[in-house]
Amino acid sequence: MGNTGAPRTTSWCSHCGAGLVAPPGGSSSGVRCALCHRVTRIERHRSVGNAVVLAPPSPPRTLIPVRRELPAGYPVARGKKRAVLVGVSYTGTDYELRGTVNDVDSMKSLLCGKFGFPSNCILVLTEKRSDDPYMVPTRENLLLAMRWLVEDCDAGDSLVFHFSGHGVQKLDTNGDEVDGYNEALCPLDFEDKGKILDDEINETIVRPLRPGVKLHAIIDTCHSGTILDLRYLCRLSRTGYWQWENHTRQPHKPKGTSGGLAISISGCKDDQKSADSSGFPESAEIGAMTDSFIKAVQSEPGTTYGRLLSAMRGTIRDGQGMGRRLLPGRVGSFVRKMVTSSSVQEPQLCSSEVFDIYRKPFLL
Length: 364
Prior knowledge:
Blueprint: E1 8-12, E2 19-22, E3 29-32, E4 39-42, E5 44-48, E6 51-54, H1 59-63, E7 81-87, H2 100-115, E8 122-126, H3 139-150, E9 158-164, E10 167-171, E11 181-185, H4 190-193, E12 196-197, H5 198-206, E13 214-220, E14 232-236, E15 242-246, E16 261-266, H6 288-299, H7 305-320, H8 322-325, H9 329-338, E17 348-351
Parallel strand pairs: 1-6, 7-8, 7-9, 9-13, 13-16
Antiparallel strand pairs: 1-2, 3-4, 5-6, 10-11, 11-12, 14-15, 14-17, 16-17
Helix pairs in contact: 2-6, 6-7
């Protein structure tokens, strides 16, 4: 029996090549790609049965890169080193955070001063920039900034995504999480517009990475261990060595890069909460993870990923355990024995591919 429904139109994205399906009944229209989120204009041509053949994109669109129009405040420069730094304070709410702007300022100083990132290739989103509506860390702005970061990436590019704010877990409904929960970032308007799940983060800044492109995500939130949905998690074994674990639950799902390397360094395990550095003497308000990361990088030039993790772990444990160490006598001894190490946040390393963390130098 033939199909009596409306003709279905098919084409492909003129930007990334993904398949597109246009709604029936229209004439000339634009269809937004589910993969790269760009709009491709398609035109209906003659019908063949119930299928409608569409004209392919014109040659200039396939030969000349076409970029979206970006807000005026976005960096014009497209250097080989680019970064998006996000600090969300949630000002005026019951869950307001202090120090996220300090996190962003400290990270920008580190990137520019130590790793040679041009300041005009760094995009900053904080509530301090309320004079520019596109620089406020809303859900829409955050996703736009993430797409800007990886757009037209090419071999030799070093990209950094840093987020300081709230992170949460949500029940996994598609079965691709080992622990049964998705991790998510909370933009400023998450209560109205929704959170950004790890699946969407992976699709936006991991999958577009081409061969020779390197992305580092520095995430200072609660529940952030596998926030990029990368395949491999580096976990500290009982013998005291960092070892890789494969966290792929559904190998057929495209969670990897397009040939590049994605690495995330986060503040704690998926089931842990993060903290600020209020336990550290003489510290400004700054996230414990961001603080420990910057100190580890500055104190050990040319460090490896293994040494970086160990240094961060030591700094966080010293800071978060300070209150317990200051308790004197038998009371302090009792508390130190009763409080387990699981109560102290553990920095996490994830990657799209396995490497020797004790030999591979940490470079941005």
